[in-house]
């Protein structure tokens, strides 16, 4: 038994990861309480705290150094094989075992620190939300509510209608505020509890923008990364979205919803502005696709300053179009589908259902 374990221990994390991938979807209650509220937090809270002590994005440096590191290891292996007169088979087996061990551990870390969370209870169950089909009037009223909220928050920031929104504080200060909204709602929704982990700005945000990605959560080191080249008004919502992943939420539409909810409950007006603006975009687009005439009625509530910020976003998107974004989008789409999300990247847009359900719940007096 000891010999067997010594030879094959490298496969144990991989086997556990595969078992989690195939078994947990059938047992959401077990996933919710044993993994999402148990194993996930046991691993991510201390590891995330340690990673947060470093102000720079470690994920960024891992991506930058990954290819050179792999190439270096391969070259070292080839050199050793050439120099060796005997024992080459043993060396290859050792290198193979090391490779399998790395892949095996990464697979387990992914499932334990992110993948398993796809199979926990859905947000509508956790928050008692009715996500049944809503009327066009509901969608119209949501757009009006969100536009008014954005206009009020922008006015509170004291920014002229003639200028785009920009941060008054450093990016590090602004990102440090990402947890403020969650702190305000965690008593009502205790499943959102987590340690306050640092959101990291990415130095190479400008070239990263060509992928179309504004934020990423790295489950292998429990790190949240934000693209800071995007227009400033979108950064708080992105940071709050990635913070939702740090709290054990995997689905992108659910992270978008929690980001919106945390932002509008934040003590900082720039976060409230970002939350209302991003939610308005989702709901406004949905209403436009349903009935353009009804959609036009919501535009009277959009201020000149909001239009200016939307124009900045559209310019940012247009400036970073291209093949890289298409490839990135396809990769992200296939990755999300591999987690059992049939509509892939389109799932981001399903945040509208949750927003409408939440607003309805609030009108009816809470959960």
List descriptors:
367 residues, mainly alpha, 3-stranded mixed β-sheet, 3 strands, 64% helix, globular
Could you tell me how far the N terminus lies from the C terminus, measured between alpha carbons in angstroms? 54 Å
N-to-C series of helices and strands = HHHHHHHHHEHEEHHHHHHH
Helix residue percentage: 55-70%
The assigned structural class equals mainly alpha
What is the strand tally?
A: 3
User: Segments where pLDDT lies below 50 for 5+ residues?
Assistant: 343-348
Q: Counting H and I runs of at least 4 residues, what is the number of helices?
A: 17
The Cα radius of gyration reads 23 Å
How is the largest sheet built, in terms of strand order? 1-3-2
Mean pLDDT across every amino acid position:
89
Strand content: under 5%
Shape: globular
Question: Major sheet, described briefly?
Answer: 3 strands, mixed
């Amino acid at each position: 038994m000891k010999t067997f374990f010594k030879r094959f221990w490298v496969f144990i994390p991989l086997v556990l990861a595969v078992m989690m991938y195939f078994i947990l979807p059938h047992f959401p209650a077990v996933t919710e309480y044993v993994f999402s509220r148990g194993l996930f937090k046991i691993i991510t809270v201390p590891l995330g705290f340690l990673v947060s002590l470093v102000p720079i994005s470690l994920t960024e440096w891992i991506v930058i150094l990954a290819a050179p590191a792999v190439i270096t290891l391969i070259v070292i292996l080839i050199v050793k094989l050439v120099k060796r007169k005997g024992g080459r088979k043993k060396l290859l087996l050792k290198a193979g075992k090391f490779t399998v061990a790395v892949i095996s551990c990464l697979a387990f870390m992914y499932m334990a620190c992110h993948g398993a969370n796809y199979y926990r209870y859905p947000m509508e169950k956790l928050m008692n939300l009715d996500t049944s089909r809503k009327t066009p009037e509901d969608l119209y009223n949501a757009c009006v509510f969100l536009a008014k909220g954005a206009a009020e928050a922008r006015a509170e920031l004291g920014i002229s209608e003639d200028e785009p929104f920009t941060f008054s504080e450093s990016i590090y200060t602004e990102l440090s505020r990402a947890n403020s909204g969650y702190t305000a709602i965690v008593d009502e929704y205790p499943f959102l509890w987590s340690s306050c982990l640092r959101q990291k700005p990415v130095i190479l945000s400008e070239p990263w923008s060509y992928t179309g990605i504004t934020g990423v959560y790295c489950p292998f080191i429990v790190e949240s990364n934000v693209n800071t080249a995007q227009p400033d008004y979108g950064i708080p919502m992105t940071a709050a979205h990635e913070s939702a992943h740090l709290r054990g939420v995997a689905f992108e539409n659910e992270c978008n919803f929690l980001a919106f909810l945390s932002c509008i409950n934040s003590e900082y007006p720039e976060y409230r502005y970002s939350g209302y603006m991003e939610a308005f975009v989702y709901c406004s687009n949905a209403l436009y696709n349903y009935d353009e005439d009804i959609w036009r009625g919501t535009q009277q509530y959009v201020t000149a300053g909001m239009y200016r910020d939307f124009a900045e976003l559209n310019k940012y998107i247009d400036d970073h179009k291209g093949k890289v974004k298409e490839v990135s989008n396809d990769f992200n789409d296939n990755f999300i589908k591999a987690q059992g999300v049939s509509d892939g990247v389109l799932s981001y847009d399903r945040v509208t259902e949750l927003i409408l359900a939440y607003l309805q719940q609030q009108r009816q007096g809470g959960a």
